[in-house]
Amino acid sequence: MTATHGRQVWNAGDYDANARFVSDLAGAVIEWLAPQAGERILDLGCGDGALTEQLVSAGCDVVGVDSSQNFVTACKERGLDARLMDGQALEFEGEFDAVFSNAALHWMTDPEAVIGGARRALKPGGRFVAEFGGHGNVAAIVTAMRAVALSRGADPASAYRWYFPTPAEYGGLLSAAGFDVARIDLYPRPTPLKTGIEAWLKLFSLPFFEQFGEECDVAVKQTAELLAPSLRDDSGNWTADYVRLRVEARLA
Ligand code: BEZ
Q1: Mutate to test the pocket of ligand 1, among 8, 29, 204 (most ligand atoms within 8 A of CB)
Q2: What is the dihedral of CA 112, 35, 41, 127, to 10 degrees?
Q3: Mind listing the pLDDT tens digit for each residue in 227-244?
Q4: pLDDT tens digits, residue range 1-24?
Q5: What ligand 1 atom has the least distance to the C-alpha of 200?
Q6: E-only strand ranges, 178-218
Q7: What ligand 1 atom has the least distance to the C-alpha of 243?
Q8: Which helix (H) or strand (E) holds 124?
């Protein structure tokens, strides 16, 4: 494991080995996007570029942005136009037909800044199509992490570093920014974890576990033990309690 110093650090190889399901399960949001050849699309939080590449293959002119240099490098290795940029400080003005995002917006805890940047980046009539963690996402996992924090004298709030809004809340933010919300849904999507819960915890929550120092791995195992009755089946397969929020909104 690489020390994270309290920040989420992405390693493209670990991501490929343990989280390929993230892009594999993006079919529905891509359908909502309905990319047309020749459209200019911003992929916001493009990760390792698996979906960016798919949009390019559909004939779109795509720019990917991510705040992780490792991911931007992985995208460039695929030959993509990827830029290092904070999704909460987008630097585009009126150039995209669509802003698209999959499984990234829950990492950006200033949603007004994201939505404002997307609005500025779009051409008049452009669309914003996104899917990310919604209200109740990974609730069992977060609750187990809070319990582990409490049992070790740490702050339980350190277990939750994401943004999982309700449709009412997120739709309200989009409307306030001048978007017409065409559709917005929240739905449970139990997600099989082929490489298990410990790999998931270390990939997505290492800064939380590192606060326990030498006890880092013990705390990961303690969390997995708490979660096993809820998320592990009799054959030993793990399923994460994902809840997705999917939205399509348009500028007038
Ligand atoms: C998600 O995709 O819902 C997610 C991934 C990592 C941490 C939290 C949520």
Answers
A1: 204
A2: -30
A3: 999 999 999 999 999 999
A4: 455 667 888 888 888 888 888 888
A5: 6
A6: 179-188, 191-193
A7: 3
A8: strand 122-133
- Residue minimizing CA distance to atom 5 of ligand 1: 204
Which of 225, 240, 149, 226 shows the shortest CA–CA distance to 195? 240
Measure 62 CA to ligand 1 centroid, in angstroms: 24
- Work out whether the CA dihedral 56, 189, 218, 235 comes out positive or negative: negative
Query: Ligand 1: residues within 6 Å at CB?
Result: 103, 106, 133, 137-138, 162, 204, 242
pLDDT digits (tens, 9 = 90+) for 46-101: 999 999 999 999 999 999 999 999 999 999 999 999 999 999 999 999 999 999 99
Cβ-proximal residues to 148 (8 Å cutoff; 6+ apart), any chain: 159, 219, 222, 223, 226
Q: How far apart are CA 7 and CA 21, in angstroms?
A: 23
Distance 84 CA to ligand 1 centre (A): 21
Distance CA 18, CA 197 (A): 10
What pTM was estimated for this model as a whole? 0.95
The mean predicted confidence, pLDDT, of the chain is: 96
